[in-house]
Amino acid sequence: MEIPTSIQERINKLSEKEKKSFLRDYEGALVDSGEAIGTVAAQAIGEPGTQMTLRTFHYAGVVELSVPLGLPRLIEITDAKKSPKNSMMIIYLDEEHRNSEEKAWEVAHSLDEKFLRDICDFRIDINRGELIIETGDEEARKDIQKVVKVEERDNALIISKKSLLDLKKLMNKLEKKRLRGFKDIKRTFVRESNGEYLVYTEGSNMKKVLKVKGVDKTRTTTNDIHQIYETLGVEAARNSIVIEAEKVLKDQNMDVDIRHITLLADQMTVMGGLQAVGRHGISGAKRSVLARAAFEETEKHILNAALSGERDELLGVAENIIVGQPVPIGTGTVNLRVKPRT
Question: Are residue 259 and residue 310 in the same domain, yes or no?
């Protein structure tokens, strides 16, 4: 039995008793040649999935944050959804900010997405045809003055228009204007964990957050796998799939071998991007017509294949089961031919 160098180095550090136990476990964990690892992985993850709860839980340590766990979260991961239902970030801070709650809050407040409607009072005076904006925030006042011509009266900003419709449109436009912070980060919370202060966010914008002063770029993470892929690349996205799926299963006290999860993550990222498991991703991209038809949209796949003269090589599991041939796994991977004597 040939053992990889990295594992052999670990074995050399063990005692004789530990070495025997390790080798016995290692040999028992090896996969036989021709094993249907995809089917085993699908069963290993899918069966516990039928026992999962459907509730949304509060995030551990942050009561204000609700995140989907259980089956809804597992579906989000395997479907490679671009926008998770409750995206969030855990932001680690650098040495200057992690030990001070005050400095941690400074970072947190700089991330909060603030609109003019959050810090200004807007009202329309119908009789005078005026939009009246009241605010004590100097930055907001300057921002409004950059966008539209205003006059100041009684410490309020006044905008006059002939049409009430124009006033209403202008008010809606100003209310939606972002004053500070980053898109999609709705709220931030500071909590202490393992002797340091962390910033938790409701919403996620990884690309922008990693550029903020005080943020530790090496540890900060998000539960939005697409943002990890777009910011850090496919390898980071693959690791994130493994971490997030394992976290969901462990939260439900379900013991699934990590190799099944890594196989799922590898299959979702093997093409260099993020693929869903369903018909819009892995299953829909299969070369076999019968395998695609066996999954979903049967008539569509068969009709399109007939119109284009597509040929099925019958190399996979599902298509061979459909036509009643030996499946090319296990003993079915061996083709034996005998030349008769003449």
Answer: no
